[in-house]
């Protein structure tokens, strides 16, 4: 079983997790820029973080045979902080980088006017740079937030929009809009493998994206593998599993023209001076 985890925050994880992921079949990942838990108070903090996603984390993943890519954005939760909004001025030079396969996570947290403005500005950047978009749906009042999200992205090519963190209440509207549907599989919250299988039985496997979204909270880097095993137990074929866990994320993020999926060899040197402030 080959696995591409299309949404995982390895900055928050240990190298033990990389070892477990490789053993389970994970060969490629996408790490979206997100809220680190502690509010950032200046633009420079974001730039250091972006540089790490472009340099240090791909190097760390490669030590365990995993290809690392990232998406970059000012995340919805911090879009309301005026100290952080200067990130929008810095993003264009980062979106040119080879390891960036989408703009994200963008979207809504509390659905404020500032989030509206930042969301729309970053959608414009995605179109300008020819990149797909990873959209975060709010954890509170998810159905209303997802409907609002779909209204905002309506003018875009739906094939370049992945609306994430969906559930049984929101998948139908996203499918009707023609966008890619993303599902985060968690131990206690969001979706679980059995619920995910039920959704796949109802809606099929096309444009369906499954991720672990593993981060600094209670989460599990092997939830993608669990979904694949649950699919097989429920009668899905090996091809169905490969479609959901590999082919679909490759198709979506491949629209960036920047996926690197050849095998990597562990070892090598980390050239820290090659990633300074977007110079990589």
From TrEMBL:
Protein keywords: Hydrolase, Metal-binding
Keyword Metal-binding included in the entry's annotation: yes
Domain of life (superkingdom): Bacteria
Pfam families: TatD_DNase
GO MF: hydrolase activity
InterPro entries: Metal_Hydrolase, TatD-like, UCP005295
Ranges in coiled-coil conformation: none
UniProt similarity note: Belongs to the metallo-dependent hydrolases superfamily.
Alphabetical list of PANTHER family matching this protein: HYDROLASE TATD (PTHR42658:SF1)
Protein name as it appears in the record: TatD family hydrolase
Organism: Microbispora maris
